Amino acid sequence: VCDGYEAEDHAAAEAYGAYLKCKEVGDRTAGGKVLCFVDKDLLMVPTISFNYNKPEEGVKWQDELSGYKCFAKQMLIGDRSTDNIRGVEVVTPEMKDVFGIKTKSIGEASAKKVLEGLETEKDILERLVQVYKMAYKEEWKQMMDFTGKLVWITRQYKQQFNINYELERVGVVVND
Length: 176
Hints:
Blueprint: H1 7-25, E1 35-37, E2 47-51, E3 60-62, H2 64-77, H3 93-99, H4 108-115, H5 121-136, H6 140-151, H7 163-170
Parallel strand pairs: 1-2
Antiparallel strand pairs: 2-3
Helix pairs in contact: 2-4, 2-5, 5-6
């Protein structure tokens, strides 16, 4: 039972703490914890993980960059079927031209195209800003903050997503 936050956030924070210990000592087993789950959202947490519905994939080491890409994908796709989180629902003509998207909304394949070739958190966040500006115009920042709050899986207890903090943390300068 977790007071004030979801159980998955508690498990994620514990696993992230173990991940930091592994990084500190340079040994992937030093943290002594593996995050076990079926919810793909937990892939955004840097840690050692295991999806027990897909045992053939084995135990994985999820670093910061691959975790951030998972977060970005969730920001684009949302989680419409389970949690009714919208993501980017409308693909504008500009987005179709820039990214070659052929669908009405961003799904798995479209998100992959949008995030293709990005190698840093800064690049990823700049791309998210670009897409949200195309989709939501002057309301892009509010929509990004709202969606981020819904999809973010915490890495530290009760840490909530905040778009202004994230832009500053990653070093993205935006002209509103």
